[in-house]
Amino acid sequence: MPRLPESALLIISVQDPDLIMGSGRYRLLAAVLLVVSVERARPGQGSCRDCPAGTFCGKTKTPTCIPCPSDSFSRSPGQEACNLCRRCEGVFRTKKGCSPTSDAECKCVPGFHCRGAGCAMCEQDCGQGQEVTDHGCKDCDPGTFNDQKRGTCRPWTEYV
């Protein structure tokens, strides 16, 4: 496949000596200028699409694939920047460390459990006889029970 220049200048010239206009003969010279900008594929150099996961495309005249710095990653090819890695701090602990091609995964410290996509937050575990509310753990109301760490209080049922 031929390589295209960064911009192209196309000149079209038409001459018709037999064109008659009015009482005399005229020569028609038509010139059309067309400037086209195209993404250039330079010999020996690729494009940003060629940068693999774990790298980003440097902003220079020539596309350059640069490895993601530490504590950052890029999941897919052709990214123009790397993403910062998630930090597992506070009630979060690292389940899987960050790599050049994937983000870190977090888990909760003992006594807490993950809630939300990708363990977006940690919610306190409640003991038996309690349930989780927006304000923490609450004892079950009379006539209800919960025998799970993460469950909700349910009414007692009678067995005969």
TrEMBL record:
Could you list this entry's UniProt keywords, alphabetically sorted.
Answer: Disulfide bond, Receptor
Spans of repeat TNFR-Cys: 67-106
Q: List the disulfide bonds.
A: 85-98, 88-106
Native organism: Myotis brandtii (Brandt's bat)
Q: What is this protein called?
A: Tumor necrosis factor receptor superfamily member 9
GO BP, one annotated term: regulation of cell population proliferation
SMART domains attached to this UniProt entry: TNFR
What single Pfam family name could you report for this chain, choosing any that match? Answer: TNFR_c6
| Matches recorded under SUPFAM superfamilies | TNF receptor-like
Q: Which InterPro entries match?
A: TNFR/NGFR_Cys_rich_reg (IPR001368), TNFRSF9_N (IPR034020)
Q: Which PROSITE patterns match?
A: TNFR_NGFR_2
All residue ranges annotated as the TNFR-Cys domain in the record: 67-106
- Molecular function as annotated in GO: signaling receptor activity
